Amino acid sequence: MKKTVLMFFVLLFVGSMAIAQEVSFEEYDLDNGLHVILHQDNTAPVVNISVFYHVGAKDENPNKTGFAHFFEHLLFEGTKNIKRGEWDKIVASNGGRGNATTNQDRTYYYETFPSNSLEVGLWLESERLMHPVINKVGVDTQSEVVQEERRLRYDNAPYGRWREQMFVNLFKKHPYRWQTIGSMEHLAGATLEDFKEFNQKFYVPNNAVLVVAGDIDTDKTKKMIQDYFGPIPRGAKIVRKEFVEDPIAETIKTKYHDPNIQIPAILMGYRTPAQTERDAYVLDVISTYLSDGKSSKLYKKLVDEQKQALQVFAFNGSQEDYGAYIVGALPVGETSLADLIAEIDEEIVKIQTDLISERDYQKLQNKFENLFVNANSSIAGIANSLGTYHMLYGDTNLINTEIDIYRSISREEIKEVANKYLKPNQRVELEYLPEAPVQN
């Protein structure tokens, strides 16, 4: 009897958690094309204001790269009604915090405030969109900031150029071949008019998604959004080019010497489908199986048991148009990069040949359940998910249903997708090496 009662409460608790994870939202468009998503959660006096612009490094002119990331910095310089240097002070004085990020597909600005400062956040973001000040002072200042960022994170960081070297070989036509940081030469050679044109083209309401999540009154929030964002004029329609890559038919072998490292690395990259494709989800599962955590197949084999690798990794970097599946390792002692390739390929072949065990399959399901719960465990996380799913996936409700895709992936499907994409003749093999010693 006690066991029956205990099981009843366990099931009741699990059921209530499943209900609690459902994220409710409302979405609509303003007349100027701005897409608005609202999520009301009055459990804590906090609100998040996020604005996503559908512009990333892939939207840049090949001869003017780095603009999307540069604007992430530049648009904190000030507006017609916010003096230079005052943006962060306004956020902090209202108890908030904020930041921005850029990738190859989108640029994302966000602030989290006490809910009584919601109007301040909406005003700030409407100012960024309507009244940005783009002048020589701001451009010169942020140019120094971006150059320093490149030096710290790319040029002088150990293994800082691996992604650059991998993607320039994975992609020959698509703009994914250059990195978000872009070219310092391109930025230095750009005119003030170039920056203004970029702003006028991409920073328009019909290219943006506004998410307001947290302790809000929906009707009052709609009124404020209309007041602050409604008067902003619609921009010209943005026409995006499509880039179709030729299949990789034979292994691309390449090397890069990094003066900032002492231990070499081997990286193998496979071009994969867009993040909206079902196969991309299956590749997420495969990468988790191979190298997520100390119990994963590659870590346990190469690091723990055979002690051939200092570190091993596999991840599926899905993006809007294509993805990149990367697997690699750093050797220990006398282990060669060729040895690591052989050992990694052996594990991939196992996935391609046999079904993974039922026990491993259940472990994967549990991991993705945890990721799903954690992604929506904060107001900021919910806002990020809502905006991302609408802009880059075309389905806002994936915030509630994406987990069902992972749940539906079978062991047979894992085997099938591994065979489809993870072939040696369809990859880039990058030997990432220490700088060769100077010969006297």
UniProtKB/TrEMBL annotation:
User: Signal peptide span per the entry?
Assistant: 1-20
The keyword GTP-binding appears for this protein: no
Presence of keyword Hydrolase = yes
Q: Would you kindly state one Gene Ontology biological process term found in this protein's UniProt entry?
A: proteolysis
Q: Which InterPro entries match?
A: Metalloenz_LuxS/M16, Pept_M16_N, Peptidase_M16, Peptidase_M16_C
Task: Quote the Pfam families the UniProt record gives.
Answer: Peptidase_M16, Peptidase_M16_C
What's this protein's family per the entry?
A: Belongs to the peptidase M16 family.
Protein name, per record: Insulinase family protein
- Taxonomic source organism: Poritiphilus flavus
